[in-house]
Amino acid sequence: MTALLKPAIDHVVIHVGPELDAAAERYSRLGFQLTERGHHTMGSSNNLAIFGTDYLELLGYEPGRATDRAALWQMPNGLGGLVFKPTGEADFRDRLAAAGLPVSESREFSRPVALPDGSAPDARFRVTHLGPEVAFNGRVFFCHHFTPELVWRQEWQRHANGVTGIAEFGIVSNDPARAVAPYARLFGDEAVQELPGGRAILAAGGARVLVLRPEAAALHWG
Fold first, then answer.
1. Which residues, including other chains, have CB under 8 Å from residue 199's CB and lie 6 or more apart?
2. Domain range spanning residue 189?
3. What is the pTM of this model?
4. Does residue 124 belong to any structural domain of this protein?
5. Per its UniProt record, what InterPro entries does this chain match (predicted)?
């Protein structure tokens, strides 16, 4: 199949609900340098661990904001979001739909970013979500950064634990071939590799999205 774009992970999302403070403390103890708490115009809040070309997002809400994005907080806490880099064209969402992929309307939002000089410019984003029927029982979407210079800053990319990027994203499926099929349409057949017990989506920089049967997942991750 002809690829619509090359797979590249933008970030992964760990849902923490109302436990942002506890999650931030836990990940700091693990050796991650986290950004200051950010607050989206949609009502959610986050802390980030920024790497070379991707990042990890702790996503939740602060007291009094549980009703903002209420449907999102119905998801269980833990790893729940896989986010790819889109192409920058304004018609990106329409191209996905034309390829037969279930896709929602794109949305734009922002959050202020506290910088060392005391300023707080807005980081701006456009996200495009794939439908839940192909989202591995979580969320899969694309995030376009209008202001990448407010995310990938050198002073935030140094971590005591030595982490420099996302190596793997793991998904357990009873039918990996079926689960990965929409992504072959999206990224091309050459981006999907058959493995014992499952499939892998090969992303930029050597990262992999592994979709494994339960028994293979138990062997791989323990």
1. 176, 177, 179, 180, 192, 193, 210, 211
2. 168-221
3. 0.95
4. yes
5. Glyas_Bleomycin-R_OHBP_Dase (IPR029068), Glyoxalase-like_dom (IPR025870)
